[in-house]
Design brief:
It is a single chain. This protein is α+β, with helices and mostly antiparallel strands. It has a single domain, classed as Cytochrome P450 (Cytochrome p450), CATH 1.10.630. 51% of the residues lie in helices and 9% in strands. The chain is built from 17 helices and twelve strands. A five-stranded mixed sheet has the order 1-2-8-5-3, with helices on both faces. The chain has a three-stranded antiparallel sheet with strand order 4-12-9. The protein has a two-stranded antiparallel ribbon with strand order 6-7. Strand 6 and strand 7 form a beta hairpin. Helix 9 packs across helix 10 and helix 13 packs across helix 15. The longest helix is centred in the middle third of the chain and has 30 residues. It binds protoporphyrin IX containing FE.
Length: 418
């Protein structure tokens, strides 16, 4: 353990926590989003940021865009990048490298700009085209049917633990080629790492996260080595056959796990939560489960699993009415964009019939547009169909727990009954 590093990181965490809380209490809307009660229901703060209609300058130094138009412009504008001029984390204090507090996990090409981004995204891009992903439909359907049957038999269950998490874990494990024996450990570490993705709040959390990353990378590395000699028809074997650095490939495989499962799990639980609210349209879906594709799009708009992303320019660049100085962090509130009244009528109402439901930025846009969007849509559609067809009376029980994260708007548990 590096004591000096821990002391420095601990001191920075304390400053971030107390400074942030003071500014939040003084009314800074962006910092408020990090604390209770605002983190539990960000809608009013997001509305305030969106109503500003132009980039909002937080006292933390971060600029925020929250309208659909500005968020879309930001993520599509190639002058806005994901690393600072020195190659560091956005908003970080580490020159030319990842800041462990803000970016505790190496996110492979999600955290890279061209040309590295282009090269690595190409290595896996062909595995996630809609045609290729559709070939997984029978597998996803069989997995979803098994999980939904088991849950229906139990009558009362936790949607997150019993359906929404095991489904995407099993799917991504299958695509990558993680053997069944390793799948449980893979899911456990993946979950631990995903929980820290939005930045860590304590040194203990950072240590837990770092040891999960070491375990996960160990498993991926061993698998890659095995597939170099004994290839199978899976993504790890495809990566093993490329002329790429082992460390790079391990990060890439870890990115697919992390980007792919907690987000999809969140999509499923947010969909069920929204639709089984008192006036929710679960009955409408149960009457016609084929509408599950509409339910997926409306959930992505209404309750985006990934609430924000960020970019920075390397030269002074204009967004909205502001000239943004190099290395200034600009956050795009993707979740707030989905509730923009300039695009959606009555945006705070969940409506399966909404004509504009597909106009959301839940998968971001531009060169970092979610690689797994076709897979996430397939899993969402198939799982909701399986649940709605078997459980027309599905409803919520007491005890739902929201996860305390600004990045991932999700549930830790969602008790339901059939
Ligand atoms: C509902 C589920 C999902 C949501 C809401 C989601 C959301 C996102 C968002 C917002 C980004 C872009 C972030 C940015 O612009 O900075 C992204 C990127 C990415 N996602 Fe997803 N994602 C989901 C599912 C998946 C799945 C299932 C996979 C793969 C198995 C996946 C793989 C990726 C990858 C590899 C990137 C990086 C793309 C790049 O940097 O070029 N995602 N996702």
């Amino acid at each position: 353990m590096d004591l000096r590093r821990d002391v420095t990181l601990g001191a920075r965490l304390a400053v971030m926590r107390t400074g942030g809380l003071a500014m939040a209490l003084a009314g800074d809307p962006v910092l408020r989003l990090l604390y209770r009660p605002w983190i539990d229901d960000p809608t009013p703060v997001q509305r305030r940021l969106r109503d500003a209609t132009q980039p909002y300058a937080s006292r933390s130094g971060v600029l925020v865009v929250a309208t659909h138009a500005l968020c879309r412009d930001l993520v599509r504008d190639r002058r806005f990048l994901v690393r600072t001029r020195s190659g560091g984390s956005l908003g970080g204090s580490v020159e030319g490298g990842r800041d462990p507090l803000l970016e505790p996990v190496d996110l492979s090409f999600l955290g890279m700009d061209p040309p590295e981004h282009t090269r690595l995204r190409r290595l896996v891009g062909t595995w996630f085209t809609p045609a290729r992903v559709n070939a997984y439909e029978p597998l996803v359907t069989a997995l979803a049917a098994r999980l939904a049957d088991e849950a229906a038999r139990r009558e009362r269950f936790d949607l997150v633990a019993d359906v929404a998490t095991p489904l995407p874990v099993a799917v991504i494990a299958e695509i990558l080629g993680v053997p069944d024996d390793d799948a449980a450990a893979f899911a456990r570490w993946g979950r631990a790492v995903a929980a820290g993705l939005g930045g860590v709040r304590s040194l203990r959390a950072l240590r837990r996260l770092e040891s999960a990353v070491v375990e996960l990378r160990g498993l991926m590395g061993a698998l890659l080595e095995k597939r170099r000699h004994d290839p199978a028809d899976d993504l790890i074997s495809h990566l093993a056959a490329q002329d790429a650095d082992t460390d790079e490939v391990v990060s890439l495989a870890a990115l697919l796990l992390l980007a792919g499962f907690e987000t999809t799990s969140t999509l499923l639980s947010n969909a069920v939560a929204a639709m089984t609210d008192a006036r929710g349209p679960w009955a409408q879906l149960a009457a016609d489960p084929a509408r599950s594709g509409d339910a997926v799009e409306e959930t992505l708009r209404f309750d985006a699993p990934i609430q924000f992303t960020a970019r920075t320019p390397h030269e002074t660049t204009r967004i909205g009415d502001r000239d943004v100085a190099p290395d200034t962090v600009v956050m795009a509130m993707l979740g707030a964009a989905g509730r923009d009244p300039a695009v959606h009528t009555d945006p705070d109402v969940f409506d399966l019939d909404r004509p504009t439901k597909g106009e959301h930025l839940a998968f971001s846009g531009g060169i970092h547009y979610c690689l797994g969007a076709p897979l996430a849509r397939l899993e969402g559609r198939v799982a909701l169909t399986a649940l709605a067809a078997r459980m027309p009376g599905l409803h919520r029980e007491d005890g739902a727990v929201r996860r305390r994260s600004l990045l991932l708007r999700s549930y830790q548990s969602l008790p339901v009954a059939v």
